[in-house]
């Protein structure tokens, strides 16, 4: 009897944690564009823009402040926000973001200091979690600097327990950069875990992260996601094709989609990448399968992602410095790894970015994939 009750409560606990992010979380985070230079007005401006520029209506939900909102602790150990940069306090900021129909995320660290040298949560986990709950925090990113001799598994479990004890549903984003292979232990602890070190706004950083995530597809699913880091779309001198490839590949990887650019100065063509509903629907597909690399010949790659309703997404990714031109007949290839059976059905093939029907899986199709670009297609079975 005792064992049955224990099993049931463990099962119920794992399930309630998992149901917080049945599809990969979507939102915005301050780090990739503002770094340490954040303040309440900047964050409110971003929330206003997300609510108005089309992002909210396609699913971007969390507005997350990263490192450098915190300056110290009071005599009772309560975490203190920077009162110069956040004069109204964090609760008022959370209320403002909630008033826009959005959710609010915050950052801390398992060490005694954060990566930018601000106070971390070590020794204060339960007190900090109670503070976050009181403020109305919906998402916690929890970093790994100054972690000293702690074990990642133990440290993240402690904060998970603290969040649970706070009584508020808070997404828990594990950020220990993949060092201890969190995909092997973090399901049921957090809803997402970083798989690599920090992304930078360059094409080689993006392709390196893609390579490091290629083998991790068995570990992702509803409520537990590999996190290849926040988006650099719109940052640095990424070309339009590189921005599109970055976004497409994050969707193929079923990655959390946290924009990381200054939305005040975003170019319309870049915003159109972030808000493309059809591409987002591949990321947010209800099956929650992470895509896998079907083939790689030099700089030419084919990625596949199983989708609900017997469909699949296919991404032709060209890392090369020249255009990739080729003819392709789907029905001659083997797509059984994503439950596509060309011997059972014919499939309609559509170009997702162009929103255009290309033909069927039996046709000989001609593709041109731009330099550092992608062609993203969807296969849908014709069942009549
Ligand atoms: C680490 C994280 C980054 C960011 C910074 C903040 O490097 O991996 O994503 O949060 O800390 O200091």
Which small molecules are bound? alpha-D-galactopyranose
Please count the helical segments.
10
CATH homology-level superfamily of the largest domain: Aldolase class I
Q: How is the biggest beta sheet arranged?
A: 8 strands, parallel
Class per helix and strand makeup: alpha/beta
| Amino- and carboxy-terminal Cα gap | 51 Å
Proportion of residues in β-strands:
15-25%
Q: How confident is the prediction overall: mean pLDDT?
A: 96
Number of domains: 2
Spatial extent as radius of gyration: 22 Å
Q: Summary?
A:
This protein is an alpha/beta fold. The protein contains ten helices and 18 strands.
Description of the molecule:
The chain is α/β, with parallel strands linked by helices. The longest helix is centred in the first third of the chain and has 17 residues, at 2-18. The protein folds into 2 domains: 25-283, TIM Barrel (Alpha-Beta Barrel), CATH 3.20.20; 292-382, Immunoglobulin-like (Sandwich), CATH 2.60.40. The chain contains 10 helices and 18 strands. The chain starts with a helix and ends with a strand. The model is unreliable at 6-15 (pLDDT under 50). Helix 5 (125-135) crosses helix 6 and helix 7 (203-213) packs parallel to helix 8 (240-252). The strands form 4 sheets. An 8-stranded parallel sheet has the order 9-8-7-6-5-2-1-10. Bound molecules: alpha-D-galactopyranose (GLA). Alpha-D-galactopyranose is lined by residues 31, 66-67, 114-116, 143, 175, 198. Alpha-D-galactopyranose binds at residues 31, 66-67, 114-116, 143, 175, 198.
């Amino acid at each position: 009897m005792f064992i049955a009750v224990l099993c049931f409560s463990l099962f119920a606990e794992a399930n309630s944690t998992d149901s917080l992010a049945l599809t990969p979380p979507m939102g915005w985070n301050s780090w990739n564009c503002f770094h340490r230079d954040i303040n309440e007005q900047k964050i409110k401006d971003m929330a206003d823009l997300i609510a108005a520029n089309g992002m909210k209506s396609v699913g971007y939900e969390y507005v997350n402040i990263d490192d450098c909102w915190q300056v110290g602790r009071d005599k009772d150990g309560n975490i203190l926000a920077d009162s110069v940069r956040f004069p109204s306090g964090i609760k008022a900021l959370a209320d403002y973001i909630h008033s826009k129909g959005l959710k609010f995320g915050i950052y801390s660290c398992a060490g005694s200091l954060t990566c930018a040298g601000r106070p971390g949560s070590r020794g204060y986990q339960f007190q900090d979690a109670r503070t976050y709950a009181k403020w109305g925090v919906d998402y916690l990113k929890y970093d790994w600097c100054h972690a000293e001799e702690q074990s990642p598994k133990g440290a993240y479990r402690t904060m998970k327990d603290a969040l649970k004890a706070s009584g508020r549903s808070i997404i828990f984003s594990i950020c220990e950069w993949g060092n201890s292979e969190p995909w092997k232990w973090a399901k049921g602890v957090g809803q997402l875990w970083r798989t690599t070190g920090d992304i930078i706004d360059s094409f080689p950083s993006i392709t390196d992260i893609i390579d490091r995530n290629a083998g991790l597809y068995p570990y992702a699913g509803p409520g537990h996601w590999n996190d290849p880091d926040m988006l650099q779309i719109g940052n640095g001198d990424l070309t339009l094709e590189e921005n599109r490839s970055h976004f497409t590949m994050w969707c193929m990887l079923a990655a959390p989609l946290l924009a990381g650019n200054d939305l005040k100065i975003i170019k319309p063509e870049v915003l159109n990448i972030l808000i493309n509903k059809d591409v987002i629907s591949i990321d947010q597909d209800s099956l929650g399968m992470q895509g896998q690399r079907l083939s790689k010949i030099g700089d030419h790659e084919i990625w596949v992602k199983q989708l609900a309703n017997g469909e699949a997404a296919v991404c032709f990714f060209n890392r090369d410095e020249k255009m990739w031109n080729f003819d392709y007949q789907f029905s001659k290839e083997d797509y059984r790894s994503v439950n596509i059976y060309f011997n059972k059905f014919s499939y309609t093939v559509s170009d997702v970015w162009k929103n255009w029907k290309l033909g069927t899986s039996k046709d000989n199709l001609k593709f041109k994939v731009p330099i550092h670009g992608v062609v993203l297609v969807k296969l849908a079975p014709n069942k009549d």
